């Protein structure tokens, strides 16, 4: 039992040492917090959660994925196989996949021209995206018909006035 | 004695205002067609409602105020300043109906920001907005950049002598061609040619960057409109940072600079007079001020080691500088990073660049290069007067398409407008400080609004006080029209109240 406990401790220590930075922020951090305190999180392993928006932009063996947590969207640099798991990217008609990203946060990434970004080490899909069904807004339809009627009336009145 | 405006004055103003509103309504056909193509029916209805309200209002004014009389200077100026206010309200209707703006005031803020090619935005959840509304956000920059009145002059108003009065009222005091309507059409032709080229360049780059073709060309067109018209809106909330592409940044820098050049200079370049770009006082002043303000920013950023290498410092510093100097407002950093990663010296560099602006008769706002050049020449002349013998005849001249001798009248006019801009920047900063923002931050945002830039250090957001939103709207409006029409409408209001 004692040996097992020691073994577990050694494995845990090795796992922690393998991370490149002194601190690990395992709990999700908001984009506002990351931007505001970028110096504090610079080079640290962080967890960031949000919806994939826009385009998944494949660049060779990697890809840029922009992920929004509702406050801001941050650029995430991830391997192409990870990016290919994304099925839905959010826009007007689509609610994008919800991802949890664990990766290194960069305040001014040297590799990417000083961009504030996250280099993903792993990602986990928290929720699948979907196509958003948008029904025709009847109030808007009725209002546009009423206004069209009013315009028509003015036009007819103008015709009479000319006569 | 101040004379009270006559009913005839009001009728003439109403008639031409109605015509401009009809012109503006016509432009809403574009998002309606786009909405149908993209099968976005609710957004299409938003624009249908807006076009109906606009046509109703326009027709009402044209019919009720029908007149055959031409505009005088005062009426022309008032028509222009009122057109921009009415355009803001009408342009805000589809935005507000989309549900992406928290209040109608916020929608008005973005509409004025768009028409005045500023780029400050209060839109919510931009990443889920429809193509239709996104197109409108960028289209109003394209329309506002050329000038709302220029649209009417180009397509809806047949030649009449009052046209020039409205054209001047919209801060376009240079005629490229002898006829003002032809001048307006030339401005549109230049813009359309660049629109096609710019959209192609950005669209193809987008595809190489991994974007889907449709999205890529849509973004290309939107970004072109925002860059050439030095607006600064972008289809996604991250602005230019969304694309993660240096090529995209380089192309937008080129387009922003093209947008900051005088349309008269474009005309001469198109006519093959390429030497003009090196000889013109505006381009040489722009070159000098870019170097000067970038030096300040670079020293500031280097002082605090904001960026890990010289290339990243250049890429970030130069992009924000060109964006600010040309009055565009594109950002490749987050708004808060101006406060967290940039020191005061770097911020002052950006503020100076924003305050200076681009060329006259371009789509930029702010003091503008011709005025800075003239003031500099006047200083030089005065210095010569001190140094040279009293009997010496001192004549200063500059090259702006033709050789021009410096006259006191020009210097006076340049100094008055410069002073008016400085006061406008200062007043906005005071309001910002009143609401608890530090001086430099308040000055940054105020200058950005009044100079129609759009860079933000984070003050502009939905939770800012109503009075601050209204202040920035007024600044954007006054800054875009370069005061003359705004002063005229103030005088007109005083005449209505106090006149006999």
Can you tell me about this structure?
The complex is a heterodimer of chains A (163) and B (500). Chain A has five helices and eight strands. The model of chain A is unreliable at 14-22 (pLDDT under 50). Chain A has 163 residues and is of the alpha+beta class. In chain A, the strands form two sheets. Chain A has a five-stranded mixed beta barrel with strand order 2-3-4-7-6. A two-stranded antiparallel ribbon of chain A has the order 5-8. In chain A, strand 6 (98-109) and strand 7 form a beta hairpin. With 500 residues, chain B is mainly α. Chain B has a domain at 1-173 and 489-500. In chain B, 68% of the residues lie in helices and 2% in strands. Chain B has helices at residues 7-27, 29-37, 41-64, 73-97, 104-115, 131-146, 148-156, 162-169, 180-208, 213-228, 246-260, 263-270, 276-279, 281-304, 310-325, 337-340, 344-356, 369-387, 408-434, 439-450, 466-481, 484-498; strands at 397-400, 402-405. The longest helix of chain B has 29 residues, at 180-208.
Backbone shape of chain A: elongated
Q: Which protein chains are joined by the largest interface, and how many residues does each one contribute?
A: A-B, 44 and 50 residues
Give the distance, in angstroms, between the N- and C-terminal Cα atoms of chain A.
Answer: 105 Å
Order of helices and strands of chain A: HEHHEEEHEEEEH
- Supply the number of helical segments of chain B: 22
* Fraction of residues in helix of chain A: 25-40%
Helix content of chain B: 55-70%
What is shown here, in short?
Chain A has helices at residues 2-17, 31-36, 38-41, 80-84, 138-162; strands at 24-28, 45-59, 62-68, 73-79, 94-95, 98-109, 115-127, 130-131. With 163 residues, chain A is an alpha+beta fold. Chain A has a domain at 24-131: OB fold (Dihydrolipoamide Acetyltransferase, E2P).
């Amino acid at each position: 039992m004692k040996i097992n406990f020691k073994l577990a401790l050694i494995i845990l220590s090795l796992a922690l040492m393998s991370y490149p930075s002194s601190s690990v922020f395992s709990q999700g951090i908001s984009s506002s917090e990351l931007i505001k305190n970028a110096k504090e999180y610079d080079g640290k392993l962080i967890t960031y959660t949000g919806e994939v928006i826009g385009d998944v932009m494949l660049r060779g063996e990697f890809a840029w994925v922009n992920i929004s947590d509702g406050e801001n969207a941050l650029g995430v640099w991830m391997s192409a196989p990870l990016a290919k798991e994304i099925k839905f990217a959010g826009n007007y008609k689509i609610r994008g996949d919800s991802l949890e990203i664990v990766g290194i946060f960069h305040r001014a990434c040297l590799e990417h021209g000083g961009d504030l970004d996250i280099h993903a080490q792993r990602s986990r899909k928290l929720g699948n995206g979907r196509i958003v069904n948008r029904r025709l807004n009847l109030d808007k339809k009725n209002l546009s018909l009423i206004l069209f009627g009013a315009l028509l009336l003015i036009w007819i009145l103008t015709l009479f006035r000319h006569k | 004695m101040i004379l009270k405006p006559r009913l005839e004055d009001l009728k003439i103003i109403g008639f031409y205002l109605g015509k401009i509103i009809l012109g503006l309504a016509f432009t809403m056909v574009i998002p309606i067609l786009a909405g149908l193509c993209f099968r976005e029916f609710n957004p299409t209805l938003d624009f249908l409602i807006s076009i109906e309200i606009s046509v109703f209002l326009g027709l009402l004014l044209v019919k009720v105020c029908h007149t055959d009389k031409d505009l005088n200077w005062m009426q022309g100026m008032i028509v222009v300043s009122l057109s921009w206010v009415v355009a803001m309200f009408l342009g805000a209707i589809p935005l507000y109906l989309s549900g992406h703006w928290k209040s109608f005031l916020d929608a008005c803020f973005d509409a004025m920001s768009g028409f005045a090619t500023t780029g400050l935005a209060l839109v919510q959840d931009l990443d889920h907005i429809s193509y239709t509304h996104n197109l409108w956000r960028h289209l109003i920059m394209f329309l506002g950049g050329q000038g709302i009145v220029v649209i009417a002059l180009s397509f809806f108003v047949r030649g009449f002598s009052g046209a020039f009065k409205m054209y001047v009222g919209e801060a376009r005091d240079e005629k490229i061609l002898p006829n003002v309507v032809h001048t307006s059409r030339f401005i549109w032709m230049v813009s359309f040619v660049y629109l096609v080229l710019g959209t192609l360049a950005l669209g193809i780059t987008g595809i190489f960057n991994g974007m889907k073709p449709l999205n890529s060309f849509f973004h290309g067109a939107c970004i072109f409109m925002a860059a050439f018209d030095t607006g600064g809106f972008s289809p996604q909330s991250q602005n230019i940072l969304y694309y993660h592409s240096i090529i995209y940044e380089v192309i937008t820098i080129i387009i922003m600079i093209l947008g900051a050049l005088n349309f008269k200079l474009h005309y001469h370049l198109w006519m093959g007079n390429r030497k003009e770009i090196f000889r013109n006082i505006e381009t040489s002043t722009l070159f000098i001020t870019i170097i000067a303000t970038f030096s300040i920013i670079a020293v500031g950023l280097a002082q605090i080691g904001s960026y890990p290498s010289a290339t990243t410092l250049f890429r970030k510093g130069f992009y924000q500088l060109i964006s600010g100097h040309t009055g565009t407002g594109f950002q490749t950093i987050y708004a808060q990073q101006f406060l967290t990663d940039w020191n005061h010296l770097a911020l002052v560099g950006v503020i100076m660049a924003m305050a200076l602006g681009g060329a006259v008769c371009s789509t930029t706002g702010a003091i503008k290069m011709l005025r800075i050049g003239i003031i500099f020449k006047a200083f030089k002349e005065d210095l010569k007067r001190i140094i040279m013998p009293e009997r010496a005849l001192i004549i200063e001249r500059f090259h702006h398409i033709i050789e021009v001798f410096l006259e006191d009248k020009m210097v006076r006019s340049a100094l008055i407008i410069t002073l008016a801009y400085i006061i406008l920047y200062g007043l906005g900063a005071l309001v910002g400080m009143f609401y608890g923002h530090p001086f430099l931050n308040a000055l940054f945002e105020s200058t950005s609004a009044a100079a129609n830039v759009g860079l933000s250090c984070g003050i502009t957001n939905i939770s800012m006080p109503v009075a601050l939103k209204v202040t920035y709207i007024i600044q954007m409006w006054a800054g875009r029209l370069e005061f003359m029409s705004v002063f005229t409408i103030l005088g007109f209001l005083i005449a209505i109240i106090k006149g006999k």
